[in-house]
Amino acid sequence: MSKKPTLDELEQQIGELTEALQRERADATNIRRRHDEQIANLKTVVKANVVRDLLPIIDNFERSLKHVPKELENNDYIKGIQAVVKQFELTLKQLGVEKIKTVGEVFDPKYHEAVSMEEGKGTTEVVCEELQSGYTLGDDIIRHAMVKVKMQ
Description:
Layout: H1 7-66, H2 76-94, E1 97-99, E2 112-118, E3 125-132, E4 135-137, E5 140-143, E6 145-151
Parallel strand pairs: 2-6
Antiparallel strand pairs: 1-4, 3-6, 4-5
């Protein structure tokens, strides 16, 4: 013959089951949060990789615009290339990609890669020329800016 549980035993079981259910709900919430964070991180990594692959194209457009002959500066073809470069820049900005500030900035190895150094009178390393643009996506460096540095 089986014994009927008492009211105290039933209340204890309800309490234990309630605690177990709360733990399971908390675990499920944590798993969902971690999953969302992992997806967001993966999206950022993929976005950074795509941008990194496009940077040489943007570099070549910018380089070509730096060497336009004086007599072609107002040519419609050149204006079209300038518009493409601006569109690239706008799209990068919309993706959250920012160009690293260089000329006139204090040299920061976190953002800048110095490829040459000019002597100067001061003791502070300041970027005097940008050789290749650098970019960030949030707190991540997609590519360091390649710069010349001068002591000021």
